[in-house]
Specification:
The chain is α/β, with parallel strands linked by helices. The chain folds into three domains: about 1-70 and about 305-430 and about 465-505, Glucose-6-phosphate isomerase like protein, domain 1 (Rossmann fold, 3-Layer(aba) Sandwich), CATH 3.40.50.10490; about 110-285, Rossmann fold (3-Layer(aba) Sandwich); about 505-545. It contains 22 helices and 13 strands. Strands 1-2-13-12-10-11 form a six-stranded mixed sheet, sandwiched between helices. Strands 6-5-7-8-9 form a five-stranded parallel sheet, sandwiched between helices. Strands 3-4 form a two-stranded antiparallel sheet. The protein is globular and about 80 Å long. The protein starts with a helix and ends with a helix. The relative contact order is 0.13. Bound molecules: 6-O-phosphono-beta-D-fructofuranose (F6P).
Length: about 550
């Protein structure tokens, strides 16, 4: 029934697209001087401008009908009530509890989980304070100068992204590093710069079985034991996991082990003990502010009417482009160098959550799901891939993010950065017509034949959509808001597509095949005849290369 209503709402959107297809964004602005005021929303000092999109009031009404047809509000209520919406793993998805400052209980299986969250956070904060003030020290008695987080996916991308974003809130003399890749170069290059006597390793892994993390953890452990002695290991390692028994086997002291719970998805775990490296870097007070920013967004997502709800609009506008216009990718361009890892973080959040082909009930999904999420900071991207954004054959909606002010004084740099951001979003919208180009070339005195030859290359079709997030400064609270906004955007889209955003079975097959192949790659004499011809051929060629 809901599916029929969703398909009917989409058919209405499709007909509406045909109806308004001839309108341009610039034309919509010309016809309505209140467009920016009407199509922008505020959440504290964050402004979400969604006026530069191919949409009008009727589009928004259709999109809200679609959300209601998909029972978005009921699904959101089930999500926040701790129902087991991750139905393939029989778990709730309750990362919001980790940033819950409402004073209300959060129930999982009939038990309030808030006391456990507070107790774990206190333990984590005490440890973070100890590392920061030097009371927690290495085996030689020296305070720590470097923290190395070893983890991958959600146990790396979140803290790595946030530590970089919030680096001005860091402590002088304390540097955080992130090692994720099983490629030994990652650990080697990181350790080459460090003194092990003043280095603390944090092994971050929800499952404590992930191949890459375990390989890096064992190598780091061996390095510490070789250089400082086996006894030093306990002083130089901490761990974050839900599998406390496996951590114990690794040999990490229980006072340095920080747990979390299986109802926290890996890519949603930055708010949990997985944030330890970040909490050490920026300190518990700032980490708390980060959590509060996330909580503010939860409040907004639950309480704001759908048509004034930022994550709801982010999700629905994405669906408008993905499912009605057929655009398959979405760029995220922070005009904020410190958000350099934000697009990579969002790739996991969005594509691991919603890159699915079956519904929650295991039926083929009727619609295209997750867009390809990608991006790099501006202005750098302008000198790389913006050519395609402006003149390529694909339309790629863009999310721009920019602060009103930098954290530290930077002369005129930030104003230049800001001007660039606005200019790009304006250029995407307005474009430049053939007539305008010809007029400009004539003014330059070019002969008619040159104008005719050059003009088509200088035309910008325009009408290319973008959203813009403008906030005061990139501080911990704002980062918390931004992360939570995108988390809920992903949820909104999963609700419309009726998919489970909280499992990730698609990562399993590769892991399984690697477990089968690794022993064959380790042993250069191992039999390969049972493998497919390409895999066997590649292994044989590698063997020939290393034998030379
Ligand atoms: O690659 C899949 C994945 O399971 C992610 O979902 C997860 O964030 C990552 O691996 C790391 O997992 P863990 O924290 O258990 O090491």
């Amino acid at each position: 029934m809901a599916k029929d209503q969703v398909m009917a709402a989409l058919a209405a959107l499709e007909a509406h697209r045909v109806e308004i297809g001839h309108q341009t964004i610039a034309g919509l602005f010309a016809a309505d001087p209140t467009r920016f005021a009407r199509l922008s929303l505020r959440l504290h000092d964050l402004l979400f401008d969604y006026s530069k999109h191919r949409l009008n009031d009727a589009t928004l009404a259709h999109l809200i009908t679609l959300a209601r047809a998909a029972h978005l509000e009921d699904k959101r209520a089930a999500f926040f009530a701790g129902e087991k919406i991750n139905n393939t793993e029989h778990r709730p998805a309750l990362h919001m509890a980790l940033r819950n400052f409402s004073g209300k209980a959060v129930m999982v299986d009939g038990r309030d989980v808030m006391p456990d969250i507070f107790a774990m956070r206190e333990k984590l904060y005490a440890f973070a304070r100890g590392v920061r003030d030097g009371s927690v020290r290495g085996s030689t008695g020296k305070p720590f100068t470097d923290i190395v987080n070893i983890g991958i996916g959600g146990s790396d991308l979140g803290p790595a992204m946030a530590a970089r974003a919030l680096s001005p809130f860091g402590k002088k003399g304390l540097t955080t590093h992130f090692v994720s890749n099983v490629d030994g170069a990652d650990l080697a290059d990181t350790l080459a710069k460090l003194d092990l006597a003043t280095t603390l390793f944090i092994i971050s892994s929800k499952t404590f079985t992930t191949q890459e993390t375990m390989a890096n953890a064992q190598s780091a452990r061996a390095r510490v034991a070789a250089s400082l002695g086996e006894k030093a290991v306990g002083d130089h390692f901490a761990a974050v996991s839900t599998k406390l028994d496996l951590v114990e086997k690794f040999g990490i002291q229980s006072d340095r082990v920080f747990g979390f719970w299986d109802w926290v998805g890996g890519r949603y775990s930055l708010w949990s003990s997985i944030g330890l490296a970040l909490a050490i870097a920026i300190g518990p007070e700032h980490f708390d502010d980060f959590l509060r920013g996330g909580h503010e967004v939860d409040d907004h997502f639950v309480n704001a009417p759908l048509q004034e709800n930022i994550p709801v609009l982010m999700g629905l506008i994405g669906i408008w482009y993905r499912n009605v216009w057929g655009f398959s990718s979405q760029a995220v361009i922070p005009y904020d160098q410190r958000l350099a890892r934000f697009p990579a973080y969002l790739q996991q959040l969005d594509m691991e959550s919603n890159g699915k082909s079956v519904t929650r009930h295991g039926k083929p999904v009727a619609l295209a799901t997750a867009s390809v999420i990608w991006g790099e900071p501006g202005t750098n991207g302008q000198h790389a891939f913006f050519q395609m954004l402006h003149q390529g054959t694909d339309i790629i909606p863009v999310d721009f993010l920019v602060a009103a002010e930098p954290i530290e004084a930077d002369g005129q740099h930030h104003r230049l950065l800001f001007a660039n951001c606005l200019a790009q979003s304006e250029a995407l919208m307005k474009g430049r017509s053939q007539q305008e180009v010809e007029g400009l070339l004539r003014k330059q005195g070019l002969p008619a034949t040159d104008i005719a030859a050059l003009a088509p290359h200088k035309v910008f079709s325009g009408n290319r959509p973008s959203s813009l997030f403008l906030y005061h400064r990139l501080d911990p609270r704002m980062l918390g808001r931004l992360v939570a906004l995108y988390e809920h955007k992903v949820f909104v889209q999963s609700a419309v597509w009726d998919i489970n955003a909280f499992d990730q079975w698609g990562v399993e097959l590769g892991k399984e095949l690697c477990n089968r192949l690794a022993p064959i790659v380790m042993d250069d004499k191992a039999e390969t005849s049972a493998l497919d011809a390409s895999t066997a051929g590649l292994i044989a060629y590698r063997r020939s290369l290393i034998a030379e």
